[in-house]
Specification:
There is one protein chain. The longest helix is centred in the middle third of the chain and has 33 residues, at 130-162. The chain is extended and about 75 Å long. Helix 3 runs antiparallel to helix 4 (47-60), helix 4 (47-60) runs antiparallel to helix 5 (65-78) and helix 7 (103-126) packs antiparallel against helix 8. By secondary structure, it is of the alpha+beta class. The chain has a 5-stranded antiparallel β-sheet. It has a two-stranded antiparallel sheet with strand order 2-3. The chain has 3 domains: 2-78, Tetratricopeptide repeat domain (Serine Threonine Protein Phosphatase 5, Tetratricopeptide repeat), CATH 1.25.40; 89-162; 166-224, SH3 Domains (SH3 type barrels, Roll), CATH 2.30.30.40. It has helices at residues 2-9, 13-25, 31-43, 47-60, 65-78, 89-98, 103-126, 130-162, and strands at residues 166-169, 173-176, 185-189, 194-201, 204-208, 214-218, 222-224.
């Protein structure tokens, strides 16, 4: 890894790539490993491979700003001509929230808040002081709302990290409206495009694109993120 990183620093991209791949072949993985391999591919002009390994790095660390920036730069260089639909600001906030921390953090916070909720309920049931009861009610309500929020964030973050359906196209592909040869071509998917495989049928593959549209392709080369 040190040798490959040194070659990367010296801009010997083509020499670093096989060393990083050797490390991967031995069953290793990691954010730095995937990110550095993505950088080596990007600078050597192999954009689909760069996107693939930046995506792999981001899957391990969804809140990593450097990896996300590298992925955005690589995607911009490809010019997919298919764009993400603009999200309402609440959904943008929600996405940035559950990606801001590791799912384990939200899981631990959920358990702590459940404990706080139980303490508040204990105070409500076994204490007779009016001021304490009023405070305990507010604590119980706030705790249960935060439990729902953090628990949902933990589930959402875990799904993002464990998502196994997303794939990167390794070469350009024509996309059709239906799984037949004489169907209308609706997209020309660029190599490096991120897609989700929905189903296969007689050699055809139904894909969901990043803009949430669907299409059919045939004889494609894909790599799983």
């Amino acid at each position: 890894m040190k040798e490959a990183n040194l070659l990367l620093k010296e801009k010997a991209w083509d020499e670093a790539i096989p060393i990083y791949r050797l490390i991967l072949s031995e069953g290793n993985e990691g954010v730095s490993l995937y990110n550095n391999l993505g950088l080596a591919f990007y600078h050597s002009g192999k954009l689909p491979e760069a996107v693939l390994y930046f995506e792999k790095a981001l899957k391990l660390s969804p809140s990593n700003k450097q990896v996300r920036q590298n992925l955005e730069v690589a995607n911009a260089a490809i010019d997919h001509e298919i764009y993400v639909l603009e999200k309402f600001f609440i959904f943008r906030w929600w996405e940035s929230f559950y990606l801001s921390m590791h799912p384990d953090f939200f899981a631990v916070m959920t358990l702590l808040l459940i404990f706080v909720f139980l303490l508040a309920m204990f105070a409500l049931l076994f204490r007779k002081r009016t001021k304490l009861i009023k405070a305990a009610k507010w604590v119980a309500v706030l705790a249960i709302l935060l439990v729902i929020l953090f628990f949902t964030a933990a589930i959402k973050g875990t799904r993002v990290m464990k998502s196994g359906d997303a794939r990167i196209l390794m070469r350009e592909a024509r996309a059709f409206e239906k799984p037949v040869e004489d169907s209308e071509q609706i997209y020309l998917l660029k190599a490096g495009s991120k897609v989700w495989l929905e189903e296969s049928q007689d050699g055809w593959y139904k894909l969901e694109l990043i803009n949430q549209d669907t299409c059919w392709v045939k004889d494609i080369s894909m790599e799983k993120i």
